[in-house]
Specification:
It is a single chain. By secondary structure, the protein is α+β, with helices and mostly antiparallel strands. It is built from eight helices and ten strands. The protein has a four-stranded antiparallel sheet with strand order 1-6-7-5, with no helix packed on it. It has a four-stranded antiparallel sheet with strand order 2-3-4-8, with helices on one face. A hairpin with a 2-residue loop joins strand 2 and strand 3. Helix 1 runs antiparallel to helix 7 and helix 5 packs across helix 6. It is elongated.
Length: 291
C-alpha cells in the first residue's frame, strides 16, 4: 500500500515542486473505466476537461490535483492502486471491466497517466470536488506527522489516554495522517518497541524514542522518494525496509530473525530481540497470543 512517503513522492513528481509534470498543462481527457472507483458525481468527471492543473498536494495518503477552475481531482490509491505516468499517452481503447485501469487522464501535450488497481478487491477511490474537505476521508484526517506543529509534546498529547495498541494508533488516520502498515512496522522497530504496547502506558522516555523514530523514519523515506518517477517508488520503498516484508530475514540491527504476526488481511513484522525482549508474538491464525 502506498503510504505518506510514496504519496509525497508522487505529489513532488506531478507538480508540487519545480519540475513537476502537470502544472500548466490542460486536461483533454478524463475517462473512467471503473465506475465503482468514482465516489462523487457533482461536479461530473467531465468538468475536468478544459481545465489547467495549477498544483498538487498531499492530505495524508490522498493526492489532490488542483485546477484553475477551482475543481480538485482527489484520489486514494488504497492497498493495490498505483499511478502509471506516460510521456505519450497510449492510444489503446480502455475496455471497462477488462483492464486494471480505473481512470485515464490526458493532457494537451500528449502526456497523461492511468490510475490502476491490481487484484479483485477494489478499494481505489476517486473524487472530483470543489473543496478537498468534501472527501470524507480527508475531513477525518488527524495532523500530518511531519508538520512542524506536531512536536514531541503534541505527539504525546495524541497518545494520552489511548488504551490501544501503539501499532493501531500509528495506523489510525484520524489520529495521525499518512502512516500505514509498513511504516508503522519500521517506526516501531527503530523505537525498539512492541507493536502491542498500549499508547497510554508509555513513559516519557518511550514517547521520546517513539517520536524520534517516527520523525526520522518518515523524513528519510520522504527524502528517498522525492524526485523518483512513479515506476521506481514501489521498489525503492521495499529496498528501504528493515523489517516490514522481511519475514525470515536477518534483522540489520541485532542479527535476530525477523518474525511476522498474521491477521485476516495483512501482517506485521518485528524483531523479537529489538522489540519484545526476545518473546515471540503468536501467529493470530493459530489463535494464540504470547505476551
Amino acid at each position: 500500500m502506498p503510504e505518506m512517503p510514496e504519496v509525497q513522492g508522487l505529489v513532488d513528481y506531478l507538480g508540487a515542486r519545480e519540475g513537476g509534470r502537470l502544472v500548466g498543462r490542460s486536461i483533454t481527457t478524463a475517462r473512467v473505466a471503473n465506475i465503482a472507483a468514482l465516489k462523487t458525481y457533482d461536479p461530473p468527471i467531465d468538468a475536468l476537461v478544459g481545465t489547467t492543473v495549477t498544483g498538487a498536494a498531499r492530505h495524508g495518503k490522498f493526492v489532490d490535483l488542483t485546477t484553475d477552475a477551482g475543481i480538485h481531482l482527489v484520489f486514494h490509491l488504497a492497498k493495490a492502486g498505483w499511478l502509471r505516468w506516460y510521456e505519450a499517452l497510449p492510444a489503446t481503447v480502455i475496455r471497462p471491466g477488462k483492464t486494471p485501469i480505473a481512470l485515464r487522464i490526458g493532457f494537451d501535450d500528449g502526456s497523461g497517466f492511468d490510475l490502476t488497481e491490481a487484484g479483485t478487491k477494489k478499494s481505489l477511490a476517486i473524487s472530483v470536488v470543489r473543496d478537498p474537505a468534501e472527501v470524507p476521508g480527508i475531513a477525518r484526517l488527524g495532523p500530518d506527522p511531519l508538520d512542524p506543529a506536531v512536536d514531541r509534546d503534541a505527539f504525546a498529547g495524541l497518545l494520552a489516554g489511548r488504551r490501544t495498541q501503539i501499532k493501531g494508533v500509528l495506523r489510525d488516520q484520524s489520529i495521525i495522517a499518512g502512516i500505514g502498515n509498513a511504516y508503522s512496522d519500521e517506526i516501531l522497530h527503530a523505537a525498539k518497541m512492541s507493536p502491542y504496547a498500549l499508547a497510554a502506558t508509555l513513559d516519557d522516555a518511550e514517547i521520546d524514542r517513539l517520536f524520534a523514530a517516527m520523525s526520522d523514519t518518515l523524513a528519510e523515506a520522504v527524502a528517498a522518494a522525492s524526485g523518483r518517477p512513479p515506476a521506481d517508488l514501489k521498489d525503492a520503498k521495499r529496498r528501504g525496509m528493515r523489517v516490514h516484508g522481511r519475514r525470515g530475514e536477518t534483522c540489520p540491527v541485532c542479527g535476530d530473525e525477523v518474525r511476522s504476526v498474521f491477521f485476516a488481511d495483512n501482517s506485521l513484522e518485528y524483531c523479537p530481540t529489538c522489540q519484545t525482549g526476545g518473546k515471540l508474538l503468536a501467529d493470530r491464525r493459530l489463535s494464540r497470543l504470547l505476551k
